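Thread: quick sanity check before group meeting

JM: Hey all, I'm pulling together slides for Thursday and realized we never actually wrote out the predicted structure for the chain we discussed last week. Dropping the sequence here so it's in one place. If anyone has concerns about the input, flag it before I start.
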Amino acid sequence: MLKEFSLSGSTALVTGGGRGIGRAIALTLAEAGADVAIVARTLSQVEQVADEVRALNRHALALQADVSDPIRVDQMVTDVTNEFGRIDILVNNAGISGTSSLASFSNDAWNRIIETNLNGPFYCCRAVASQMLERRSGRIINISSNYATMAALGGAAYNSSKAALNMLTKVLALEWAPYNVGVNAIGPGWFETEMSKASLETPKQRTRVENIIPMGRLTSLRDLGLLAVYLASPASNWMTGQVIYLDGGETAAFL
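JM (edit): ok, ran it. Output follows.
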């Protein structure tokens, strides 16, 4: 490995790390040398991922937390800091989806999506800010979506939450650039996860999705982990305020 991509000696906190994208990122960060705290609402899932991290000879911590609760987020960051001594990398991956026409969108459904997808990353960034700014180092990676830039029927809450997360990424990048804290986002396209599996269950559905993607195929979740390693490592020390869409070219016509 090129030394600029090594995360040896670093500690990462990954929210929504019990499955799917979060799990893939947590494991790839560990492969690159990071110790990892994995957080999600389902403790059994993060405990399993923590065991996988330990199998890579890295230190791991599993915590149960809902990132939409600011008090719990503050305690989560305290617990991770007490365990590892510091947090070098924050990956804001926890997120939920939901589609409905605006006329039938309930207040509760709207608020759940906004509170998890936008407020959660805000709370997490705020909670780690003091130690990263004082230390004048750190990396934050927000997991957005290519739907942050593309409208979709029924996506009023989800698409808006991810578009707002992109702007939060850019604003924090400007605020924290003088402190050498990099803030970037990844916008995944179609990946096989619990959130997307209902749209990929049959060969016909899979073909329909592949036909949307200019490269004509899906790819491995590991690709997201590899991009996260780059954004977390010294290799990206001059990159901040960027949203990178990893989607096989789907957003190429929109950006």
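AS: nice. Strands lie at 11-15, 35-40, 60-64, 89-92, 138-143, 181-188, 243-246. The chain has a mean pLDDT of 95.
JM: adding both to the slides.
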